[in-house]
Amino acid sequence: MNxxxxxxxxxxxxxxxxxxxxxxxxxxxYARYLxxxxxxYVNNDDHIKDVLQESFLKIFSQLGAFHYHGxxxxxxWMSRIVVNESLKWLKQNRRLEYVEIDSxxxxxxxxxxxxxxxxxxxxxxxxRSLPDGYRTxxxxxxxxxxxxxxxxxxxxxxxxxxxxxxxxxxxxxAAMITQFRNSKNIK
Amino acid sequence: xxENDWLKDIHNRMADFEMEEPQGLWEDICAAETEGTKLPVAxxxxxxxxxxVSGIAAVGLLLLGIFLxxxxxxxxxxxxxxxxxxxxxxxxxxxxxxxxxxxxxxxKTNVQTMEKHSEEHLLTExxxxxxxxxxxxxNKMNGTLAKTEQVDISHTTTDTVSLLALANNxxxxxxxxxxxxxxxxxxxEEATRGYEYYAQTETSANKPSRFxxxxxxxxxIGADNRQLFQGEMMAxxxxxxxxxxxxxxxxxxxxxNKGADTERxxxxxxxxxxxxxxxxxxxxxxxxxxxxxxxxxxxxIHEGNNDNFVKETQRLHYVGIPVGVRYRICSWKKLAVYLxxxxxxxxxxxxxxxxxxxxxxxxxGEEETTNIASHPMQWSLGAxxxxxxxxNNQFSVYAEPGCIYxxxxxxxxxxxxxxxxxxxxxxxxxxxxxxx
Lengths: 187, 436
Description:
The structure holds 2 protein chains of 2 kinds.
Chain A: H1 8-17, H2 22-41, H3 45-62, H4 73-93, H5 103-107, H6 120-128, H7 132-143, H8 148-155, H9 159-183
Helix pairs in contact in A: 1-2, 2-3, 2-4, 2-6, 3-4, 7-9, 8-9
Chain B: H1 5-16, H2 25-35, H3 43-74, H4 77-80, H5 93-98, H6 101-106, H7 108-111, H8 119-123, H9 129-142, H10 157-167, H11 174-183, H12 185-204, E1 211-219, E2 223-229, H13 232-236, H14 249-256, E3 262-268, E4 272-281, E5 286-304, E6 309-332, E7 335-359, E8 362-371, E9 377-390, E10 395-406, H15 416-419, E11 422-434
Antiparallel strand pairs in B: 1-4, 1-11, 2-3, 3-5, 4-5, 5-6, 6-7, 7-8, 7-9, 9-10, 10-11
Helix pairs in contact in B: 9-10
């Protein structure tokens, strides 16, 4: 199998030419990355495939209209589609609990945490194990770099609620990372 | 914006993280594109379609039952309604034969003596004519009976049949019929009163009220949901001291469960629905119904294991408006049987969750109550069979066993409506006939 990667510009050029392999090349190049994106939101393995199918169908149906603006723009665009489909699935199938917390707790600074020595797949697994609401806000804020205002609009919640979820998510994640490091005697 | 370096590190790592895609994903995408459909149908969509088909089937069965029943009305009316209440004269045979419940009930004592199904034959001529017909027949029979006053129609069916037979020159002799009718003065008086009732009814032009108001409460069947988690978080967490998770009891509980299997048990209680209804009678069989309802929807959630767990209660409050139709099948004395179907639109106006955290089986002292932000609309379709019993002229009580299908509200709320979209319930209520 040819594992060489194509540039996004080249992929789009092939697609526009009507190359029959273009779609498969797009799929092959980004399926693993998009699976990782989806799995951070959808922690039920049985449904990741469904969400990815919907995402790729949407990607291929809109690929012709995509406006390329630099290397990485195609990947970012596809990632946004996967995130949106994942959020749609979460809203339809899961209970996204949003817990308000006392403002005093919000003011407590985060405990310093060191992720050194913790493998990425372990970090990924830890994120997947967070409760739905915490995990969703954490992913949107930390990984997708959305603001609380944007998150509030996307999820239909208040900004303060978004902040609460993030605070709790960080506390949980920090505890898990600390414990992992201690268990592995990582200095 | 990264507040801490560790978050920035997580961002950078997850931005490039990749993992094996699901097996067969590309083939499924190709198949979906070839068929021009999105597949597979999500479970929620599948169940929604099943539910819609079930709802349509329920309504279809209701209409079919009404249609078949209506056809039977034209045929063996006597067989199907062995003891119809008597009639207020109406414009057509069928309606007269069926009687009108509200009218009948309001003058029950007067007409009870007239409750004979065979009277339908006599009544087919219309209005007070039915009574006159009796008189005419008697006169024909023996020539000695004065009009209706001397007609004994309070006896068993046989008597009336005899009268009919006589009118048709069939069986018992005229003498026998006359004898039967002349020997029971008391019954004649009753019959007279009954006749007078009819005359009064017809002449006063009292029409039955078309409006009824009802109050009912309904309960259904709840639902349970259990999920067993072998949480990955448990696999990487271990015991922390209390100070490690102070202020975050959920984290503490999850950490203390040390990689053990945890279970999430959800018990959805059957919704308790109560409300006021208003019915408008279109004719003696059909009525339009509407009103306002309130429903309390509760769920209990237990998450964790036997030692360390979170106990949560969810209470949702729905206000709704039903719109539907009711079809009266038959009535007998004070009882009436009917079918009804309605569409119910409910709005979740408020909801709260209350959590208690238990460490080693003891309440940790942490409790929190949260207002639920989601306020979805809940649509449902219901079909019921009902039995109504008249207490007096105005009040009646009823019981309506039935089924209801809840459509997906596309919200994130976890409710009995989603867990058990097809529910069976029992409505119990009181009806008041108002106005004229």
